[in-house]
From TrEMBL:
Task performed by this protein: Has nucleoside phosphatase activity towards nucleoside triphosphates and nucleoside diphosphates.
Residues holding Mg(2+) 2: D105, D107, D120, E123
Reaction catalysed by this enzyme: a ribonucleoside 5'-diphosphate + H2O = a ribonucleoside 5'-phosphate + phosphate + H(+); a ribonucleoside 5'-triphosphate + H2O = a ribonucleoside 5'-diphosphate + phosphate + H(+)
Keyword terms: Hydrolase, Magnesium, Metal-binding
Domain of life the protein comes from: Bacteria
Organism, scientific name: Bacillus weihaiensis
Gene3D superfamilies in UniProt: FomD-like (2.40.380.10)
The name this protein goes by in its record: Nucleoside triphosphate/diphosphate phosphatase
Keyword set includes Hydrolase: yes
UniProt-listed Enzyme Commission number(s): 3.6.1.15, 3.6.1.6
Active site residues according to the UniProt entry: R23
């Protein structure tokens, strides 16, 4: 089973811990693909929710998925700067159908000035009980949340000043 290559168009599937589909992004262009990391770009892509509702993303986005980290990062390019939406999640897997991960509810929204807000802590607590998250998962997720917050403060990885702009320039070469 090979990993997607640069220029391939893939779907992204988000699941919940109970195995049910949460959300599907219809089309993302792969900008970098390896067994450790997939970076993709999309703009105005169709997103389908678990209840069948659909919506279309409003701005270009660069998506960063890693096979070792329990989070993924979406950098959204808006007129007033780059906003990040970070999902605390399982590492991604690729199965020739789609890039897949489990969404564990906790999210971090990062603003262009690199301030951030942790979101959905109440949803995490509720789902942790309803879906019986094992204690080891809780520990892993909280440790990875700390790692993510350190990356934000240190401007590491996708939070580095030119990261999103450089990958967006590469994305534009595929959409022309």
């Amino acid at each position: 089973m090979g990993f997607p290559r640069e220029g391939d168009k893939i779907q992204i599937h988000s699941y919940k811990h109970n195995g049910y589909i949460h959300r599907v992004w219809e089309e993302t262009t792969v900008l970098k693909g390896s067994q450790h990391c997939i970076i993709g770009g999309n703009d105005r892509t169709i997103v389908t929710e678990s209840d069948g509702r659909t919506w279309i993303t409003r701005e270009p986005a660069i998506c960063y998925f890693h096979a070792r980290h329990w989070f993924n990062i979406i950098g959204m390019l808006r007129e007033d700067g780059v906003y990040y939406y970070c999902n605390i999640s399982s590492p991604f897997v690729w199965d020739d159908e789609a890039l897949k991960y489990i969404d564990y509810d906790l999210d971090v929204k990062v603003y262009p000035d690199m301030t951030y807000t942790i979101l959905d802590e109440d949803e995490y607590e509720l789902h942790s009980k309803l879906m019986n998250y094992p204690e080891v998962i809780d520990i892993i997720l909280k440790n990875n949340l700390e790692t993510l917050l350190r990356w934000i403060r240190q401007k590491k990885g996708p939070f580095a000043p030119e990261f999103i702009d450089e990958w967006y320039e590469r994305y534009l070469t595929y959409v022309k």
